[in-house]
Design a protein that fits this description.
alpha/beta; 8-stranded mixed β-sheet; two-stranded antiparallel sheet; 25 helices; Potassium transporter; K_trans_C; K+_transporter; transport; membrane
Amino acid sequence: MDLEGAPAIADNPIKRNSWKAVLTLAYQSLGVVYGDLSTSPLYVYKSTFAEDIEHSDTNEEIFGVLSFVFWTLTIIPLLKYVFIVLRADDNGEGGTFALYSLLCRHARLGALPNCQLADEELSEYKKDGSAANPRNRIGSSLKSALEKSKLLQKALLGLALIGTCMVIGDGVLTPAISVYSAVSGMELSMEKEQHQYVELPVTCAILVSLFALQHFGTHKVGFIFAPIVITWLLCISSIGVYNIFRWNPLVYQALSPYYMYKFLKKTRRGGWMSLGGILLCMTGSEAMFADLGHFSQLSIQIAFTFVVYPSLILAYMGQAAYLSKHHSLETDYRIGFYVSVPEQIRVPVLAIAILAAVVGSQAVITGTFSIIKQCSALGCFPKVKVIHTSSRIHGQIYIPEINWTLMLLCLAVTIGFRNTKHMANAAGLAVITVMLVTTCLMSLVIVLCWHKNALLALCFIFFFGSFEALYFSASLIKFLEGAWVPIALSLIFLAIMYVWHYGTLMKYQSDVQNKVSIDWLLSLGPTLGIVRVRGIGLIHTELVSGIPAIFSHFLTNLPAFHQVVVFLCIKSVPVPHVGPEERFLVGRVGPKGYHIYRCIARYGYRDIHKDDVEFERDLVCSIAELIRSEKRGSSVDVMEEVEDDDERMVVIGTTSSNLEGIKLCEEDEEEEARRSDEVRTSEAVVKSPERLRRRVRFIVPESSHIDEEAQAELMELMEAREVGMAFILGHSYVRAKRGSSFIRNIVINYGYDFLRRNSRGPSYALCIPHASTLEVGMVYHV
């Protein structure tokens, strides 16, 4: 049947199902993506009128603020993010680092020190046309300048890191201001003396509970997130419609841009400074792009355009309509969300607002975990413990160290400020800085990745950048009134990221400079000058070519070494995901008689690293597949590598992805005996404490024809696997050499060394048996 020729969508089950899936994703995105954005009406008007401007009888201020809110929501979240930025995905993933990764691939900037030409052959690397050159002269010149200039590369990395640090700062500030603003509604239902002793403890209790429940993962309570946000949006939009018809049906006239002009003309400097509160109406817009990997572009566009956007506009219009008829408020609460809520439903609305604030905070915290994992995978943040809280939902992670750090910082901000004014100033600067970074990176994406005219990129950065720069200046002027917090947090995290990235780069360069040549290995002969004992020696190294210096250290200090030696490199590549069929790069180091192999396991910055027995099985099978493929027409993709040692590498997938490949069957003698004599299972048998031998078999496809030489090598590999693996973890330490500058000494000897000692080791090393592990360290002076 020709599906494309179907006359109507109703007759096409595939299209009908796809629309059903899109609408389902749109529904789910309401609870994950828009929790933060939907709670902004709680504090926008209150923050705007906190100090800089007054609400007068002419209503020029309130109508001007409404006009600014309407056009801000229309230009930034709707036009910029929904219709433009969402298209700049990195193979389905979004966020600041996804844009940076996209630029690194197109301009070949080398975000990671151990990148290879083979990485450019990955299917996801080619999917977005990374190999294509810009079709215009300016784009080609810009690409060439980025590839040649180390200064421009560092500036681009610094820009991405600044945006990342501000996202982390937002993870501290958003829960504080959202929950505090929601709880502040209690002020209208109790005495002032009671309220000041209740508001702060309740806020802190909710925040502690929120962070304490993070280890359960959002999937445990995710089914209630979307209904909460939908209920909240329905609530604020209904209240907005009620206030419009009840108090001022002509409030729609304030949507005209003319009211923005009147507002700035009357308020002047005060109006400009109040923009720092108005910009909070778009807080959470970046989440639409950052959470793109969990949903689809179309689902996010539908949810915002047809649900979130109209609900927010109605909510802001309703508040403005109420305030336009109420100029002298009796309560000290002044201009806020809850004064426009009818008194009869104020308590239920308060409860829904608190739940919505918790949902919005949850999304920001999860996004902070995700971006820190990306930074760590790309070598820009120390290794941290990442716990995957869901086996079904991709991206649901929990990082204990970051979680408790965010909680302490969030409590410190809440207790230190105790008012939405300073929290709003801090959160506003963090939000607008991230948006400015996204605008700058997007202008480069338009030229380098989309291959559009440079004039289009200039128009993009001029139009959106000037709009955001206006808000940025209004936020920055309030440095002493709270805006210093995100700057201080960003400087701290930026220093951590820079020190870790610089130290990691120096360590890798030292490994490369001290690696051993293949000639030295050949001069030792097949025995390597020592006794070769049965078993597999797995040597972890960051090198993707050559022989690590740590191996020569072993040979000169140990009387014996293993029959099979594997140099294992587990590395990240600048793509979000690497398919299982492209997981391993496998090759030989030296002649066949040496039985030395190199295996490079490649992961994307959003991939889950295997840290169990399955990884070992895949590793052994990949070596067996290499041996099988060498003497016949290979069924795997073979490609030449441009390496110093002229190694030939083979792309091999995992066992589950390579259905025609060799399978590994393992069982203990105890299990085999149990199978052969099931009748005696009821008898009590005492086993001797001696170690049980593992029986290993390779299951080769019937269509394979393997010669005697390959069979003998497979038998040796099988016998080595039966004995077991020994894990050699080589640790390289860097120290600043004598005569180095004071700053270099501080960064290397104290900063990087402190981070290295307190960071996690490789993820796979956590489950390695200690009895089978040998750790050796070497010190390099850089």
